[in-house]
Design the sequence.
């Protein structure tokens, strides 16, 4: 089994319910959720003229390979009701692979660790709740240290 960290965000519809629904789909389809952060309301990043987000992070156990997990998460987004939107635009749900074991991977479809983790408080804050000592495999800093570095 592999350990992965998933970022969840939603800013359309019932944001909390959308996050919970995504988690239910994960569990229903054989993913073990071992830790979950609280839900945090955050301001939009990138495109500011949109509703605030609810963000959270999960630690999961999975037998899926990174590319399989990515496609699985994209299917859950569709199940929850996500439609194509503008880059950094509003969305019913967003599921991102933040970290996967300690691998470093870059393909045309997927980059692990997720790019931009170190600059995004809305990712680091919930991730630090559940994995503060986890080391970023590229930057060689803990999630806690990356979050403190934003202040």
Sequence:
């Amino acid at each position: 089994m592999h350990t992965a960290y998933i970022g969840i965000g939603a800013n359309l519809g019932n944001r909390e319910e959308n996050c919970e629904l995504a988690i239910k789909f994960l569990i229903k389809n054989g993913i073990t959720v071992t830790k979950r952060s609280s839900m945090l309301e955050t301001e939009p990043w990138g495109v500011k003229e949109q509703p605030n987000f609810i963000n959270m992070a999960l630690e999961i156990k999975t037998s899926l390979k990174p590319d399989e997990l990515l496609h699985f998460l994209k299917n859950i987004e569709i199940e929850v009701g996500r439609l194509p939107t503008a880059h950094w635009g509003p969305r019913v749900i967003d599921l991102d692979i933040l970290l996967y074991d300690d691998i470093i991977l870059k393909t045309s479809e997927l980059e692990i660790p997720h790019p931009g983790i170190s600059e995004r408080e809305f990712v680091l804050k919930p991730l630090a709740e559940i994995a503060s000592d986890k080391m970023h495999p590229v930057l060689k800093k803990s999630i806690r240290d990356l979050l403190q570095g934003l202040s």
Observations:
- Residues 2-115 form a domain with the Alpha-Beta Plaits fold (CATH 3.30.70.560).
- The two ends are 35 Å apart (CA to CA).
